[in-house]
Design a protein that fits this description.
Structural class: alpha/beta
CATH topology of the largest domain: Dihydrodipicolinate Reductase, domain 2
Keywords: Amino-acid biosynthesis, Metal-binding, Methionine biosynthesis, NAD, NADP, Oxidoreductase, Threonine biosynthesis
CATH superfamily of the largest domain: Dihydrodipicolinate Reductase, domain 2
InterPro entries: ACT-like_dom_sf, ACT_dom, Asp/hSer_DH_NAD-bd, HDH, HDH_cat, HDH_CS, NAD(P)-bd_dom_sf
Helix content: 25-40%
Pathway: Amino-acid biosynthesis; L-threonine biosynthesis; L-threonine from L-aspartate: step 3/5; Amino-acid biosynthesis; L-methionine biosynthesis via de novo pathway; L-homoserine from L-aspartate: step 3/3
Largest sheet: 11 strands, mixed
Distance between the termini: 53 Å
Radius of gyration: 24 Å
Pfam family, one: Homoserine_dh
Catalytic activity: L-homoserine + NADP(+) = L-aspartate 4-semialdehyde + NADPH + H(+)
Shape: elongated
Length: about 425
Amino acid sequence: MKPVKIGLIGFGTIGAGVVRILQKNRQNIVDRLGTAVEVVCVADLDIKTPRGVEVDQNILTTNAYDVVNHPEVDVVVELIGGYEPARDLILKAFEHGKHVVTANKALLAKHGDELFAAAEKHKVNLGFEAAVGGAIPIIRSIREAFVANRIEAIEGIVNGTANYILSKMSDEDLDFELVLKEAQEKGFAEADPTFDVEGIDSAHKIAILSRLSFGTSVNFDDIYIQGISCITPVDIKCAREFGFRIKLLAVSKFDGKELDIRVHPAMIPESKPMANVNGVLNAIMVRDDLMEENVLVGHGAGSLPTGSAVVGDIVEIARNILSGASGRVPAQSFQTHSVKKIPLKPTREIEGEYFLRFLVQDKPGVLSKISGILGRHEISIESMIQRGRDMDGKGVPLVMMTHQAKEKNIQQALKEIEQLDVVCEKTVLIRVER
């Protein structure tokens, strides 16, 4: 049986990992697939730097369109990231009748409608397991394993950098900036960590998971996003006293009418499995009408975990090629005619419990002023912690946990509270997800 031939666009960390896996486990793949997978073209702007894997120098090129136009390539693997030229390269590959595997979550979150439609038009496969959760087979699970289940919610720790930072802060009582610097030195965080620590990367991923879970197109710009740079050791200590751990959580819930989708730091009860997923690990919880909650945990990034997900997609597509069964499983999980527009629930209408940390002057009557404003906005206090005395004139932390309240009431109350002359800085708000 003739081998399935792939072309690689992007020969960085993940691309080198893909080649390493294909070489190291070549026979294992042949035994499972029935034929070999061969790399026949590799494109990267830098084809001189050693990658730690041996490839034929004759298959290297600096022109990505050489891969797309290569007559022998069956599957194009796009690993360069970003919007352009990745989008154009994938569309050109489809036009040439080539299947595509990508790890490009940002592109799928922003241009998923166009890419899914093009793949269907040209009757080719689009694989993107590596776009969310690295080695965790969450996309394949949603598209196939949970096909009979009506998913109600999906929540996840889907950024290893943010999880590493929060875990380290929690375990060693360290400041955000110090841990971020350490994460960068260890290679867990990029030189510019904005996408990771400000929740943008997680938002790309929850947009994709929402599409697959609920059969709807999500406008990425409508997702509420808040990062972790505001979290301090004080917040983490207080969370622990209340019985919670703080995680950057991507949330998507469907109540049958509206989709509640957001990314933000969340207080999770210590008894929950998600609260105990630490370091660079990812975890994704799926709740449905048949099995209640399932939690998948694994490595969400890195050369080999992500490369493993890419190779899994390559082999799945190779099976389709060998059997002549393109499009056997819809790329977007739902049949195109069943994809519908679900309105997003406005953030102000969300209801939940809240952790509030005020920095206030150490004066009599401060608590009554703040609690009075909260009460006028129908917000009741469940518990409270006041930290120490003001020894340096900078204020003291006043921490509260609320009962169920509406987000719009919380925001209105905080706006009023922050106008008080006894409040020293902007309030820290962390939502509770039980």
